[in-house]
Structure to design on (384 residues):
């Protein structure tokens, strides 16, 4: 069996990209040949993958994505495969991995009504409809249960086409037997004394993840506590605006913003609290990665995986609508309550031993293998 995977951009540290890589590797391990269509690729190409860089350009993303679909459709006509799996919404898929929230919902609830007259809206709305419309064909791999009702509200998507996957947490995020030793080495490397408190925020897209909220909460701590609290941020994004914000808040010495990297497990073990006050977050894989590492979590309720924080009793979830004062108060309370943090840590580590949060890729491949190939030309739904 040969499977074509489609995603616009691959880079090693994005949540969607990591989901793709786990599933593609699991498909390869199950005996499938893997072909990947992308506009751009950063990092190494796994052995055995056929990577195809789609050579199209355009001034706008919508136009570029429409050209991507047309080019891939033409290539697939010349070199057919058994299944086409998409990680971005586009026409012509057999299976779609639903990493992103409902575009139509955001367009109608967060945008001015005139936005729906734009070419951008017409393109992305058409591409979403090609996946979720009642008479569309793709099977849908769902990772955020709450999103199913939203998609069905707008598209009347049949229940049978949704397949809820467990989260896909890599076991290398679990706390190893020598976690205490790794933590001690990490904190020595970063110059953290015993009384210092390390906040960690991980995720590409600093604005969406609420980095501004984290900076304000740090700035609002009492002076003595703020002086011994540090925030390390890791993600693939342009940091200059947030570095300026930190400087304006007097936090230059407290805040370090790093590019995406491969040693996240060390940070999860070395930190004292994961902060994730996101504005919008379909899932939030890092919440679960923190829990299985024994790192308490402070996040907003909009995160799709926030219920797991409650289930694990491994941290605090801030209710919506968001209030900065609530985040400030929660952070202050958590820093001052080491006993509560220790209990959250123990709860999370115990929960991680039995929770079904590791089999995402294997279950996804089962569904992909069972789905009949019924690919239509990818360019048909484009209106850009």
């Amino acid at each position: 069996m040969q499977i074509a995977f489609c995603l616009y951009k691959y880079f090693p540290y994005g949540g969607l990209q990591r989901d793709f890589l786990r599933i593609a590797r699991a498909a390869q391990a199950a005996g499938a040949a893997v072909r990947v269509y992308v506009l751009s690729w950063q990092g190494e190409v796994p052995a055995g993958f056929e990577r195809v860089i789609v050579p199209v350009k355009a001034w706008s993303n919508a136009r570029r994505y429409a050209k991507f679909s047309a080019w891939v459709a033409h290539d697939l006509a010349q070199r057919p495969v058994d299944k086409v799996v998409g990680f971005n919404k586009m026409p012509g898929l057999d299976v779609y991995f639903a990493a992103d929230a409902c575009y139509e919902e955001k367009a109608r609830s967060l945008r001015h009504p005139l936005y729906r007259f734009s070419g951008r809206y017409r393109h992305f709305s058409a591409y979403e409809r090609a996946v979720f419309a009642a008479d569309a064909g793709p099977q849908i791999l769902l990772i955020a249960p709450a999103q199913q009702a939203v998609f069905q509200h707008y598209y009347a998507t049949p229940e049978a086409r949704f397949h809820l996957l467990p989260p896909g947490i890599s076991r290398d995020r679990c706390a190893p037997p020598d976690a205490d030793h790794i933590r001690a080495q990490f904190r020595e490397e970063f110059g953290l004394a015993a009384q210092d408190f390390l906040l960690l925020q991980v995720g590409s897209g600093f604005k969406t993840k609420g980095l501004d909220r984290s900076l304000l909460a740090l700035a609002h701590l009492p002076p003595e506590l703020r002086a011994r609290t540090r925030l390390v941020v890791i993600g693939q994004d342009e940091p200059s605006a947030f570095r300026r914000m930190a400087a304006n808040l007097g936090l230059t010495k407290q805040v370090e913003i790093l590019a995406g990297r491969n040693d996240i497990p060390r940070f999860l073990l070395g930190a004292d609290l994961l902060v994730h006050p996101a504005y919008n977050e379909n899932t939030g894989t890092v919440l679960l990665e923190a829990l299985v590492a024994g790192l308490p979590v402070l996040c907003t309720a909009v995160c799709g995986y926030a219920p797991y924080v409650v289930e694990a009793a491994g941290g605090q979830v801030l209710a919506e609508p968001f209030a900065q004062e609530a985040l400030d108060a929660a952070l202050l309370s958590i820093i001052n309550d080491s006993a509560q943090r220790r209990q959250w840590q123990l709860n999370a580590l115990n929960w991680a031993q039995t929770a079904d949060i590791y089999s995402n890729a294997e279950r996804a491949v089962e569904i992909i293998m069972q789905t009949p190939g019924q690919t239509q030309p990818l360019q048909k739904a484009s209106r850009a």
